[in-house]
Amino acid sequence: MDSPPENAAKGLKPTISVYTDYLSNRISSYFPAASYSNFLSRISNFYRGSSGTSKRRRRKTSLPLPFPSSAESSTAVCEASRTVGVLEDIMECIFLNMHYIQKNLEYWQSKAQGSNAKRAYFMICERGPYAFFNGTTQLLSDCVGEGSGMQHTYCLASSYISERINFLSSLRYHLATFLAQIYMKVDKVGEELVKDSEKSLSSLLVDMNDLFLKLEASIGHFHAVRQQSSSVDESYSFPLIFEKLPEVNQEGSQWTDCETRDAINLIYQNVDRLNTYLAAIVTIHRKPRRVTRYWIPYTCGIVGISICSLWLLRHSSLVGSSDIDNWIREAKESTVSFWNDHVEQPLISIRDDLFYTFRKRQKGAMEPEEVQLTADSLHRMLQAFTEQTKGEKAPPNATDQEMLEIVMMRYEKELMHPIQNLFSGELSRALLIQVQKLKLDIEEAMLELDQILRANEINFAILAALPAFFLSLIVIMLVRAWFKQDKKAEGRGRVARIQRRLLIVEVERKIMQLESCKEQGQEKDVQCMLGLALYYLDRLYCAVEGHARATGEWISLRQDIIDLAKPDLQTAHKLRITSRMERVYDCLLPLPKTQ
Known about the structure:
Layout: H1 5-11, H2 18-28, H3 33-49, H4 75-79, H5 81-112, H6 116-125, H7 129-145, H8 149-195, H9 197-219, H10 247-251, H11 257-285, H12 290-293, H13 295-314, H14 323-356, H15 368-390, H16 400-414, H17 418-424, H18 427-455, H19 457-484, H20 494-520, H21 523-551, H22 554-565, H23 571-584
Membrane topology: Multi-pass membrane protein
Transmembrane segments: 460-483
Keywords: Coiled coil, Membrane, Mitochondrion, Transmembrane, Transmembrane helix
């Protein structure tokens, strides 16, 4: 190749990432095409010029290339690290773009599975204000004119959704085929690349260039495919055209170092063009943005906030009103009162009870010694009354209840002549004994009540702190849910485990479909199914790495995933591996159901 050394050196610089290309296409919709293209090219040149010899930024983890396991760290692979880096960048590009396509495809497939009413609602209410007014106007005119407005809307929705499903499915098909061809090529020449790196590098780069040209023939015409009845509101501004290796290099048996750098530079240019092209065409067929889908609730929220703002303005000090200041002061006082009554004082009470309850256990409104004194006094009074009434000494083992029966019998007899016996009999003495018995009963009841209250002091304090406890629990749950974000397969909850197990299901399904295509002799479909299986294996690889490393299962699980990616491994063996993965590895086991 005759390119100057400066251009060759630039070829070694890292390229802009996939998401940067996607973002650039998003920004380009707000600027004129010509001015934005110049602006972006300046940024790209600055990026590559200032990168020096830094490596291309890659994802944190991804499915490894199928090099021989015994040579992963050998010097031969290190010598071919430039080509390995190119291959990893190509696979990363395909994985990221396939993931973006898959997310949009799943969205449109979920819409296609909905009812006609839901699809019509999407066509009218979830595509923005412009589509809302146009759809409403068209619906009303059809209802007034032909009387079949809803049926026409149903047909439009079905056509709109199916067109995007067909386009994204076709694009995913070709990218999966391209991914499988690269993976199979690397798997085939892996041994040769280790044994004779210089000779294998040139042939591998030529093969990569041929695969890019095949991909161009497959999807390069998508910019021109535009049916007259298409519901796509935008057109593709550029075709997909890859750079080609010069014929002189393709025929050479051994390349110079400069020619190798130029070929790598050309591959990186093709990767950049593929990223830019895919970002542009997928953006046109992607799902609507969240702000577009929920523009009606957002609009209602903005209107509500505006009304609330005007209402607050009327009560603010800006218009001479002190209502807001009063409300703030009342809210502050209520908060301080709530804190004191339900947080501070209960906690202080619990602390005091825990540290001082046992020390103060014998200090209450009624002590056991006082009750015992009253009981002893009553016993002596009963004993003296019994001895005086019977004229003999009371038995030493007589109980208070027996002596009290004697008092009550004497009391009943004295009541026959109450006035006489009140002054000269035993009536007054019997009354005083009953008063002493009543005093003893009251003191015993007070002692039991005091003990009950002491035993429940901590319970009352905890009960007073319950409102603050539940409020804190709700706040903690909300904060935990916010930080955890347990919706993706990388999470730690039940939903994340379900997502990881579903990835294994998808891998099994693609393996079985691949075997079915082999039996039917459908070579292109075989490559597509292999590419889709590699895509789901890459997602599974990224999702389980952190969990498997934490449990010490990563070495074994990683090898199982690599074995599943091998093109030549028998289907029965692959299915046994997936079955073992679902049963053995902790990060893939289902959580036990809560009773």
